[in-house]
Each structure stands twice: as C-alpha cells, then as structure tokens.
Amino acid sequence: MSDQPVRNQRKARTGLVVSDKMDKTVVVEVERLTEHPVFGRRIRKTTRLKAHDEANQAKVGDLVEIVEARPMSHDKRWRVAHIVAARKG
Asked: Can you list the domains of the chain with their CATH numbers?
C-alpha cells in the first residue's frame, strides 16, 4: 500500500443549466426537497451554483452532473463532470 493520503469522496449534484453566457462557466440550478419544520409538508428548494465547463459544451436546458472542486473564482467552486441529458430540440 502506498503512503499517499486517501482523498475523501467529492460531493456530486445533478441540475439543470440555466445560463451559459459566460466563458467556461455555466449556472446550474440544483433542486432539493426538504421538510417544513412546523407543518411537515415537503418543500422544493432551488440553489444556483456556478460550475466550470472547460470545453463550453453544456448549453441551456441540459441536465448535468457537477462535482465539488477547488475554488476557481469568487463564487465558482464546482466543475461539470458530464452531461447527463442534452436539451431536446
């Protein structure tokens, strides 16, 4: 066995690309369900994350998987792993 430290698993999220206007950056909207603390009803919450897209392949409407990465700018801390489903049309 090698003496190299074992890296932890990176967080991964799946979301919809809502903007691709920047160079090598896409805005991905990630949706999650959470329970209301008082009423117990399920609530849909969305988070918009900026992700690095080196090849500028992801387009608006694509479903992509993003993974945690080192900070690349002020608010860009995710990287596009791969496109799960391209937009229809």
From this structure: 12-85 (2.40.50.140)
